[in-house]
Specification:
Elements (H helix, E strand, L loop, with lengths): L3 H4 L9 H8 L20 H10 L4 H19 L3 H22 L6 H24 L6 H12 L10 H14 L1
């Protein structure tokens, strides 16, 4: 019987950064350990035999594997503080909107609440703009800096997600 652990990368200590980036972009097929298997035609005895194995590769299992990788990431590295702050800001924004919608139009605090909603939206937009306009914070540029720190060449194809984040932590503590 084929299992996810055998056919998919389900841990951040085996998933390469290249594959991680592809998955972040929605291409979950990059979690498959054997990417070529999805292209095997179903002709002839041996190909039919291989097809049974490749039938395991499907979008459902891709998503299950991605959930396992995400769980492993959060369990081992936690949620980054920037993401926590952003999520908390979105919760405040949503709560303010819900409170605003539930208020009676005659309530004098409704205008103040509208100002709060606009303020939260401006903060959210500022964070999003900061993330978009930071060309210096690309993974490749970070790997270049970490390569100098580690004393070896690091690329997205030879560095795992776990190794990348541990190196960033080490660099932050020493740099």
């Amino acid at each position: 019987m084929i299992t996810l652990n055998q056919e998919y990368f389900v841990s951040i200590d085996e998933l390469l950064l290249f594959n991680w980036q592809k998955c972040q972009g929605g291409e979950l097929a990059y979690l498959r350990k054997n990417m070529k298997s999805k292209f095997v035609p179903a002709q002839g005895f041996w190909n039919k035999l291989r097809k049974k194995k490749t039938a395991f590769y499907n979008e459902y299992n891709d998503v299950k594997a991605w959930e396992l990788v995400q769980s492993d990431f959060v369990e081992r590295l936690g949620i980054p503080n920037k993401n926590k702050e952003f999520a908390q800001l979105q919760v405040k924004h949503t709560k303010a909107i819900l409170k605003y919608l539930s208020m009676d139009d005659s309530n004098p605090k409704k205008r103040m609440l509208l100002n709060d909603i606009e303020h939260y939206q401006e903060q959210i937009n500022a964070i999003l703009r900061t993330k978009e306009n930071t060309p210096d914070n690309t993974v490749e540029r970070t790997l270049l800096k970490l390569s100098k720190f580690a004393g070896r060449t690091l690329t997205t194809r030879n560095t795992t997600v776990l190794e990348f984040h541990l190196l960033i932590d080490e660099y932050s503590n020493h740099g």
